[in-house]
Amino acid sequence: MLSGIDPGVLAAKPPEATRRAAGASRCDEIAGGVQLVPIERVRTHYARLRPGVARGGEQLGPEFPLLVALLPDGDYEVLDGLKRLARWRERGYRVVPVVVDGAGSSAEHKRRLLAANAPARTSTALDEARVVCSLRDEEQLGPSAIGRLLGHKRQWVERRMALGRGLSRRGTDFESWDDLDARRRVWLDETPGVGNRRVHGTTRRVVNEAWREEQPFLIQLPDQRFAVHEDGVRVVDADSTLSMNGTRYTVPSVLANRSVAVHIYAEHFEVLDPQGHVAFSRAYVSDEEKGKLQIDQTHYASVPRRPHVPGGERLDEALVRRFPELASLVQGLRLRFKSLAPIHYGALIRLSERYGEPAFREAALRAQQYRRFDTGAVERILVHDHPLPDHDELGFLEVEVPLPIRGNRRGYRRPFGRSRHHPPLHRQEHARPAPHHGRPARRLNRSPRRSLPLSPRCGPHPYPRGPR
Structural domain of residue 373, as residue ranges? Predict the structure, then answer.
């Protein structure tokens, strides 16, 4: 917000809001909204609760106003934006934008300081510990009162208080991370009675001395990480390819049509030959190439190639040589079907052998005349104009097979050589007519009266049944 502005411009002609803010002494006159105030009237008493080094250099985005609280004497206490204020002081600004959060006690100011930095997660546990210890020492608040003020439980307050009491003031104030690391090394290895120079409570030995005694017996780690892999088995198909994580890779052709052992690493995989030696190793492809066949031409170098037979003739050349008048049809098939044209050439040759050359020539010329460059069109013309004779179908042989004599629900015995699908000869006059096509067969006898059963001698049964 202040980038690109001359530091003296704001002080040369302060707006009305600046003059009101500079002379105001009541909170209700300036609370809310962005105000411009002289930088001399901005205090930083809570800077010890938010230590750190202000980042220098050009900022990536606009600078936001400071969040301040109005003090009884008319000055302002910074609650959020201490590092921004430090940068503005270095650049020489004399007037800074602020947002007044209203008056309040020092405890309320510290609560607002934590709340202002909580959404962006810029406050650490150490920052919270400083605020808790300050509320305990300066405002004389108990753990329960501090928890109610900050919106936390008593246990959280006690943990933050223990953290703040356990750190010295000198250890919490540092200029940079390098300065803090240098202090850590001094405390860890050069301060008597603490760190690695203390006496261990269990072994009763000094940590550094025990380390120097055990160091010669330790195994030095290698420069590279240990190779950790997963053992697996993959099937190599006839094309000498195998699948790894959904992508197929070619392997040496000597491994085709067999199962091979593989070592699966995090970044690559290895394929072993039957003797257990590494026959092929490759890194996994990127996500963009995943799923595509990865071909290495050197894997097929040992595969013998088929010898070239001189004098071979292509199908289209053989078709034109046999039927010169169909050159336009062959050319049309080539332009339309491209790589699939040889399939149509073979189909045309089979049609000429099936229907004969005269009929095929007539149908092909007709399709060529109407520019129907399709084998299906030629076949349809042949079927329509030159149908082939139907083949004689073999009828079913009716063979009378002797069946065992058994009773029938009609009260007669079925004669030998007749099945239930072929009624006996003496009952032909009572057989049902064949059903009409397209509708189901109807019953011959629609009378509600029961028909008399027939005897084996084609007459009424001498002893008809009585009513059931």
Answer: 315-385
Asked if 185 and 279 sit in the same domain, the reply is no
Q: Which residues contact 159 (CB under 8 A, 6 or more apart)?
A: none
For residue 294, give the CATH number of its domain: 2.40.50
Domain count, the chain: 4
The pTM for the full model equals 0.27
On whether both 238 and 211 belong to a single domain, the answer is no
Which of 158, 185, 216 terminates a domain? The answer is 216
Q: Tell me the H-state helices in 251-356.
A: 315-322, 327-337, 341-355
- Condensed to tens digits (0 to 9), the pLDDT of residues 399-449 reads 444 545 454 445 445 555 545 555 554 444 444 555 555 555 555 455 455
17-71 tens-digit pLDDT? 444 444 444 444 455 577 888 888 888 877 777 766 555 544 544 577 888 888 8
Distance CA 264, CA 127 (A): 47
Mean pLDDT in residue range 240-252: 93
Query: Is residue 86's pLDDT more than 50?
Result: yes
Examine the domain organization and report whether 24 and 93 are in the same domain. Answer: yes
Same domain as 205, residue 114: no
DSSP 125-176: HHHHHHHHHHHHHTS---HHHHHHHHT--HHHHHHHHHHHHHS-HHHH--SS
Q: Which residues does 276 contact at the CB level (< 8 Å), separation at least 6? A: 261
